[in-house]
Amino acid sequence: MSVPQAASSLQICRIMRPDDANIVGNVHGGIILKMIEEAGCIVGTRHCNIQNGDRCLANLVRVEKTEFLFPVFIGEVAHVTAEITYTSKHSLEVQVKVMAENILTGAKKLANKAALWYVPCSLKNVDEIMDVPPIKYASAELEEQGRNRYEAQKMERVETKARIEEVMSSPPNPEQHTVGFSQSSLIHLVGPSDCTLHHYVHGGVTMKLMDEVAGIVAARHCNTNIVTASVDAINFHRKINKGCVVTVTGRLTFVSNKSMEIEVLVDASSLVEAKEEKFRAVSAFFTFISLDKDNKPLSVPPLKIEKEEEQRRFDEGNARYLQNKVKRLANKERQQ
Amino acid sequence: MSVPQAASSLQICRIMRPDDANIVGNVHGGIILKMIEEAGCIVGTRHCNIQNGDRCLANLVRVEKTEFLFPVFIGEVAHVTAEITYTSKHSLEVQVKVMAENILTGAKKLANKAALWYVPCSLKNVDEIMDVPPIKYASAELEEQGRNRYEAQKMERVETKARIEEVMSSPPNPEQHTVGFSQSSLIHLVGPSDCTLHHYVHGGVTMKLMDEVAGIVAARHCNTNIVTASVDAINFHRKINKGCVVTVTGRLTFVSNKSMEIEVLVDASSLVEAKEEKFRAVSAFFTFISLDKDNKPLSVPPLKIEKEEEQRRFDEGNARYLQNKVKRLANKERQQ
Amino acid sequence: MSVPQAASSLQICRIMRPDDANIVGNVHGGIILKMIEEAGCIVGTRHCNIQNGDRCLANLVRVEKTEFLFPVFIGEVAHVTAEITYTSKHSLEVQVKVMAENILTGAKKLANKAALWYVPCSLKNVDEIMDVPPIKYASAELEEQGRNRYEAQKMERVETKARIEEVMSSPPNPEQHTVGFSQSSLIHLVGPSDCTLHHYVHGGVTMKLMDEVAGIVAARHCNTNIVTASVDAINFHRKINKGCVVTVTGRLTFVSNKSMEIEVLVDASSLVEAKEEKFRAVSAFFTFISLDKDNKPLSVPPLKIEKEEEQRRFDEGNARYLQNKVKRLANKERQQ
Prior knowledge:
Three copies of one chain form a homotrimer. By secondary structure, chain A is of the alpha+beta class.
């Protein structure tokens, strides 16, 4: 990995601090996601402004499914490398790699790999989408692969709509290990530090809040040290602007022998607009695992299902779980 | 250049930043409360360690009712002056004054005055309360007045217990301007920065979270720029330690023509303790007012009462409101 | 309780938190530099606005060489005292002292002494430099000494230009203990919290980032606990404004038996401006030492020189090292 050369790649690094981690010293997945998005936003915005015309900002619209390969610890230096890997007429793909370096031993490990999609919005008129200057590909094959990824995500984004379900409600005195017992919500008033140059919340800030709630749900369910194992593809349906109150709610949908799937919903509403329109901005599934003192996975208590819709969500989660397992095995075989 | 004068007084100052304020530029009351408590904790801890014996930490047990006299703005410098004004065998009173200075015009205004009670806890054994070294009073009259304040708060602390009500619940689709409509909750995972020395949350951190929730409740009710006008006496019933999840919930109890009273409850529970014992750590009443563009008070929409217990809480709030009004008038007359 | 005395002096204090320190508990030098600059900016801005006329802001243009005399630890209270010690027609000198107080034992130590030069810029037109109201000196001798310091720094500021070297580049797979091995970069998107009044980054924020990168370089070279020992005089050539991306790069220039000299370059460029003009905003030399568990200095691995220009920079660093050694000895003798 080399130092920032071209406008289309970038490297960030930062020491992980106590506030970035839980009490055991594991850096929160949300902190990693936030760094990844900051790098993506810089490299994307910089690229979209290399041409003449209105100034614009790269706006996150989608993060592909991402896996946390190794836990990162306090005192380690996280190196985030971002590179533009595909451009369509109105969107661009940034691939990001996170290496964690123990500066005392020199050991390095690959902590995360992610792919993000951005759309450039004019600074004059946020609803106007601008053209993306094309990049040059090292080979026709790389371009072809990029186009396939582009088509695949486009189709998925059209299919997936924000889940516009009712407010999550829970029984007053839930029993331990039920869905209602661990369900958690937080509200956050969007402040200046959460926002881009525009007055819109960085996608990374939203992901950090989502990871925080998911982590509390997971810890309440199993009362152990928990870490983010993966995040499903996330689509950002609506921009959230300054002065909004964001409500982030998480609930368990599925529990396997050693993992928990948590659905997280993000709703936003303006504090000062009288009409008080509340909208579903983002939704995603986070998977957490429980670790013992030596960072080995622990068993997770089973989930007590009480209602019909909980069973339906459990079955859907189980299907996702099995699908991912099949994919992982296929990937392994291909690599052999 | 001189070093901190006496061990029993202290001055802190800091420029107010964008992140300390709402979008209109008014610094959040919670930021002021947090600075006040930091000053109190330093001066109290320093005083209790001037003698030989076990090292100890001043632990906040009570804040007297405090009024926000003037709003503070971004870019102003807040000067917080703290002084020990009374000591009993096991507790001490710190009086704190906050001046806001506009460094461009030189204008200064008194933004806040507060009184806090601390109890020294041994660093070896947090449950052991230590002796407080006595201070010297400038006059017998000052000592007498301090003793009266001490007796008064002692009696109140014995009387007030944490309100051990059930979890606040709200109807699924509440109508605007009802109690359920604006009720809000946040959860916060206690991190290292919340607890400096010891492994217990600073009282100031808790007050900041309480103010944040109360502010969201108030803004949801009237959709305007709102600021903290006052906080009732707060008793800290239980210490909250690192690794806890704190749930802070606020709901409207009373609305007058130009003010809103919000009850805020703080519950804490350990994330990693299997028994998952939840406890009510703090409860208090915050009063907010709504301001127009020139910082003049606006009318507040009336509160729609739907349930019997809401009416009961409204009447109690009204009684507190009238009591405060009488007190304020009496104070004014005394000063004339 | 009294309000800030004279307009020309100020005291700030704050408890050091876990996030201010490295994993061993040593507070980062960058945190101290940031507090020093905040105090200087307040006292300077306040002073320049005591007269009628346009309101203005004190803008940091230079920090004199500063030494870190004692490490500061988490839980200690840092007292920063700032005083205006000289005024010329268009600039003023602020001398700052940092005392670290252990509030449990009452022990105090002098952690740092620094001198900063500010120039007042009009709030209406940032490029307009304002007049500085003169201060009164306690003696003609003090004024004379101040004038000498003023003339000396003026000459140096004219001599030193920002080092306009090419971007630092490094070999792809560097060997351990070479310059390329430990070279590090970080990128920071300037946010609202970095710029309080005006839309320009506080000098203290930049110094904190520089110290962070230098610390990473030093730790990578010797894989031990490292702390800032001193910072060379820093000249701030250009203002950095909101919306800029700042790239901070550090590389080893010289290593003695027990110290490492790291050159840090700060480049800034606008994210959205098409011309993408990158400019060198600041450059400086940081010296770090390596500490064992008892905070005693350790030996540092020698630096493997690979290129001609590395040797040239090493020799220049060696000359600075020897010069400082001579100065320190001369100071000692003078004090005896």
